[in-house]
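Continued from yesterday's entry.
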Amino acid sequence: MANDRTPSVAANQVLALYASLLSATSLAAAAHQLVSQLALLGGFTRVVLALHEDGRTWLLASSSTDLAPTNATASAQLLLAAIDEAIDQGVPLCWPLPDTDNAVAPADWIRLEHRQWQQDIGGAVASLPLGTDGTVFAAVSVQRDGTAVITEGEIQQLAQWLSLAAPALRWMRYGEQTWYQRLRRGLVQTISDLRQPRRRSTRALLLAGLLVLAFITLVPIDYAVSGRARVEGAQQRVLSAPSDGFIRMAHVRPGDRVKAGAPLVDLIDEDLQLEQDRWRSQLAQHENAYAAAMAKSDRVGASTSFERVNEAQAQLALIAQQRTRGRITAPFDALVVQGDLSQSMGAPVRQGDALLTLASTDHYRVVVDVDETDIAQVRAGQPGQLVLSSLQWQHAGLQVERITPLARAVEGRNIFEVQARLTQVPDGLRPGLVGRADVVVGRLPLVWGWSRHALMRIRLAWWSWVG
């Protein structure tokens, strides 16, 4: 029956000790309750609890304070040396050794500090390191006066009593640390875990991540300003109606390529024909009047008729020129980019009305829309690259030529037009294509280039708030 009750009693003692620790409001109070109850349960003269962090050990609680003031410093140093001896070896140590302690032979562990401590105070001493997850953070030292030694069974009993107390003490210690202490502890623990052989792949991934982070943070690369781009002909001409009239026929539509001199639009010239016939009739009348006046030697009438003949001839020459201009032809090899007149047959036009827009096909220019937050970095002569939506696999080089000094609003943003010339002309290029252009304005690390816009907006918001 006694053997059946012993595990139950030990478990109750462990639970009672754990409950008393949890009832404490601070680590110091919990440590004092622990050492007092251990001294009472084990029959020890003195029980001491010490903490060990960052290679340093200090006393936290003691069940008694019977050291004389003149001997307190020396005794404390001997005690801490003995505790460090047990922590460094990671096993419980005691002195003097019990006769039946065959499991821990004198040659197995070093007990020099425990021997000096025992010689200083007499009796028997022992130290038990405490830790969780393979990390020692505290130690308990016990002292007993007289000639009775501390047996291996008593040390095992101490370990059993502290099985739940050790994690509780560690939780309390972590709870009282400041945030930067917890952060440093976490970093130290992480570094310690990474040193383990099983974390070789983790170390490799972490090293690769650090290299990538260093690259994007420190290594400068080309930094480009991007914007929507469109291709235009270097020479663009608007063809307008030479006179009032009506559209007879349109020979081209937008997208057609034309050669110089090719007919584009014909205007109806019936009115000009009638006007021409009228002036021809008047010319004949004036010539007859001039001849009659000359026959009569009427010098005044001849002079008047002669001037009227000149007027009629000038009007006929003007009408002939207007009839010639009734057929609009291409002034150069070009592409029709605007003006669909195929659905406007017979429509009236007035002199000066725009009919067609032509763009040259031998030279091109690129217009890039640059946001107002980036325009200050763009300079004439900077290189860039153009990618068109319809020619995504062909990249064309460009160079900035001119920056339009006026901004215009597009989709709630102010943009500036930057004109650039192509240094490489891809196959299939034609005016009117749109895409994306990148203008290289300097060299910056990737992370600063990515965060530049956000930092500028934050700076602007801060300035508008603070002033």
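--- second protein ---
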Amino acid sequence: MSTVDLVDSQYYEVAKSGSLAEKVTELARDRIYEDFIGICRPSGLDKILDVGVSDIGGDAANVVERRYSPQRNLTAVGLGDGHEFRKTFPEIDYRKVVADQPLPFPDRSFDIVTSNAVLEHVGSFEKQRFFVSELLRVGGRVFITVPNRYFPIEHHTAIPFLHWFDSTFKFACSAAGKAKWSSPENLILMSKRRLSASCSVRDVKVGYTGIRLGPLSSNLYLFVPNSTGSSASGGAGR
């Protein structure tokens, strides 16, 4: 199965259309969007890049594209060909990118760069560091969100509580026939410490977003208010 199928199709098999899981995901992402607007404060002239959009439809997918206006100020990238994305969002410039390769944009091309639910899938700590460095390179303000591993229900498998520890999560995934999700190549469960470590910039803020439950909140965010760019090498994509 391709990376695109694994991260898009299989993730949305857990949050099936019309299901309670999809409604919870939609609620979390709408609140993430509200934090994105409140923290990044985009103007009507800001150029915005969304890294790692989905070609899977549904109310829980691509919240920035669904809600932000004017859409002509948005650019989106993903690993797929983007056929469904282009049909749904014809005003948005879509670019296909290659995993573990630099983003196809010059330094400081965008005022704001955002990425939701991508960093946990890039495959290793080194790749996470490069992924973030690429967002910093092409953008001014950078806003990254990931699922919080300490939310009571694991986002990709719907396994409760056992994902708080690597050993119990691996056992639960194996027992549930979902062993691929216990591999770091497919999923790295994210904590505030792990998210902070993925960024080399000192002026960074890490906090809770999504469904707010304090340390058990559904998601985490990392915000860099004024990136100076990065020249590290590695890859981007989902």
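The helical segments are 3-14, 20-40, 63-67, 83-88, 125-138, 166-175, 192-197. The chain is about 30% helix and 15% strand. Will compare against the first tomorrow.
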